[in-house]
Design a protein that fits this description.
Number of helices: 11
Structural class: alpha+beta
Mean pLDDT: 93
Shape: globular
Low-confidence stretches: none
Radius of gyration: 19 Å
Largest sheet: 5 strands, antiparallel
CATH topology of the largest domain: Uridine Diphospho-n-acetylenolpyruvylglucosamine Reductase, domain 3
Order of helices and strands: EHEHEEEHHHHHEEHEEEEEHHH
Distance between the termini: 53 Å
Strand order of the largest sheet: 4-5-8-6-7
Number of strands: 12
CATH class of the largest domain: Alpha Beta
Helix content: 25-40%
Strand content: 15-25%
Length: 274
């Protein structure tokens, strides 16, 4: 049980949501609840006094072409996104996360902005240079501020947001889902286990882009690694690992094993995209 009385709010618009956050101390946005709810049950240290359910907000549930971009709402479940065919690399990535029951609850925004180190849904979005649409609570009588920024500009090991800022959707250029792509994922046990390493790669003309998860405590994409791979292909592996820095070691796998896995994934991806 959650050992506290919690105010539950369900706004219909983004403006109502950020206004509710401003009026309720200790409020948190909720969509799937797959991280917040277990954390609140486990520890009283989580200051959770109000839940703001964003699932009624239309902008957070968009799943359509918006002009020259594909827009995906932050409140969409991973199952809802993966059921479509508009972004094949994203679909392939999402189908590897957890099992079907969890994907029915886990949301796109929750996976990208969550606290777990893996956050694999971020990989295709980072590769596609996605933008993030959000709204920030009003300050001193002013109106709430809407923003749209590149994901890479606000993703520094985690999604860096202003206090009370609510992510509404992610938008990718219309051509990005059509780029040739490759996706590899390795777990220690079953396919639904957390990844030891996940690698996503795309080819945009002569440019190669690589993003990885599981090998660090956060998803990573490096311009230096992309440039080396685009120029030298498999011969660029030393430069790639220099750009990514040391891979992590934990109880599930050594750093050396992760290095070996990632080398094999990169070579296989380059062959697939050749």
């Amino acid at each position: 049980m959650i050992a506290a009385d919690i105010t539950y709010l369900r706004p219909d618009t983004a403006e109502e949501a950020v206004d509710a956050w401003s009026r309720h101390e200790g409020a948190r946005y909720l969509a799937g609840g797959t991280e917040i709810t277990p954390a609140a049950r486990r520890t009283a240290a989580l200051d959770l006094r109000a839940c703001i359910d964003i699932k009624r907000i239309a902008e957070a549930n968009v799943h359509e072409m918006c002009g020259d971009r594909l827009c995906l709402g932050a409140a969409l479940s991973l199952s809802d996104v993966a059921a479509g065919d508009a972004f094949p690399l994203l679909n392939a990535t999402l189908r590897g996360i957890a099992d079907h029951s969890v994907r029915n609850r886990l949301t796109l925004g929750g996976n990208v902005a969550g606290l777990l180190p893996y956050r694999e849904a971020a990989l295709p979005l980072l590769l596609a240079d996605a933008t993030v649409r959000s709204i920030v609570p009003a300050q001193e009588g002013a109106q709430a501020i809407r923003r749209e920024r590149k994901l890479r500009e606000i993703f520094d090991k985690r999604l860096v947001l202003a206090p009370g800022e609510l992510v509404l959707s992610f938008c990718v250029p219309i051509e990005a889902p059509e780029w040739p792509w490759s996706h590899h994922r390795k777990t220690r046990t079953s396919p639904v286990d957390y990844p030891l390493v996940t690698a996503g790669m795309v080819r945009d003309g002569d440019s190669i882009r690589l993003a990885i998860a599981g090998a660090h405590p956060y998803p990573v994409r490096s311009d230096a690694a992309d440039a080396a791979l685009s120029k030298d292909g498999p011969a660029a592996l030393p430069a790639v690992f220099e750009a990514f820095g040391p891979l992590r070691a934990d109880s599930r796998a050594s750093a050396e094993y992760r290095v070996a896995l990632l080398k094999n994934m990169i070579r296989a991806s380059l062959e697939e995209l050749a």
